[in-house]
Amino acid sequence: MRWAAWREIRALAGVLLLAALLFMVWRFSDRAEAPRTGMHFALLIPEQGGQEWLRSTVEELEVAYNLRLEVESFPTAAEQKRFLRLLSETEVDGVLLWPISVNQDDYAGEMEALQEAGVPLVVVDRDVRETLRDSFIGSGYKSDLLVLSQSLRSLPGGESFIVGNRSGGDGGQVVELLFFRRKDGKADFEAQDMKLRQLGENPPEGYRATEYLRLEGTNALQLRQRIRELFTGDQAPDLFFSLDPTLSAAAVSAKRQLGKDCGVRLLCYGDQSLSDVEEGLVDGLVTSLPEVSVTIGVRYLRDICRGFWVPGSMDSGITLLTTEELEKGFLLVSDHD
Q1: Helix/strand/coil for 212
Q2: Which of 62, 113, 191, 333 satisfies CB 3.0 to 4.6 Å to 196 for a cystine?
Q3: How far apart are CA 230 and CA 222, in angstroms?
Q4: What are the phi and psi torsion angles at 316 (to 5°)?
Q5: Element (H, E) at 314
Q6: What average pLDDT values come out for the chain (337 residues) when binned by 10 residues?
Q7: Closest-CA residue to 158 (of 299, 301, 265, 277)
Q8: Three-state SS for 217?
Q9: How would you classify the pairing of strands 284-288 and 318-322?
């Protein structure tokens, strides 16, 4: 009874707050550009399976906001870049880019052309060139931090963990690993990957970043061997969290060779199957929420074209599937309600 009353109070407060915000927008909107209808946005999406949600999401957005959304799917970053270059010379009102490449510099020229042409650009899923886009929507470090904190609570005796990601730049693709331990102090490092930098500056409670390892020019076999060495060394981590599908595949392969009881819990972003979770090779399967990111991204493009402010980034949350949760369904993990 008390909870029901509390929920009613919260709902009423939410309605009043929303009404106040709408009034403020109406009151001061005379400084913004006049709302436009029928805007044309191009959505550049990777060509991959499991995107049945995309058609319905696009149709709903077109109807809800009177938009024309042009969806273009490409299998390679090179094809994405060629089409992106053309868009700066067209009448398109805005562009949503879901990058295929992990290389920070791959899209720089095309993004600069869009910026010079005054075409708004929103990036989803994987952030690239922060200074050349209007906003980024995807799983952020705060969602990753929640996943880590939740997983570490199930390891009361856990002394260390590693977070790894793959990125790129002018010098080629690299794998970066950040080591955390239960002790004071912080390693002097400059990670290229933004998420690793943020996690290093804001680690889970009770832990500190103590070491940084950068691997360059490693192929899949060498990467798997290097991870296997990490899992079996004197300072093997209690938990390994991979933020990249390629790194995840290498970690799963290494754990399969060592056996699921090797003593390292594995959290993965990637395309690992549910059977890997069932077998105990993957202790937590993490996936982003692309339908949420695309929806927010299109709404941000519309707001930009109407002259409204949008945040430079938005954490769209993630899903976490653990062995314990497998029979109960997916658990949404996000830093916002």
Answers
A1: strand
A2: 191
A3: 12
A4: -90, 0
A5: strand 313-315
A6: 39 41 40 58 86 87 94 92 92 93 85 95 89 90 86 81 79 82 69 83 88 84 90 89 90 91 88 77 87 94 95 88 64 46
A7: 265
A8: coil
A9: antiparallel
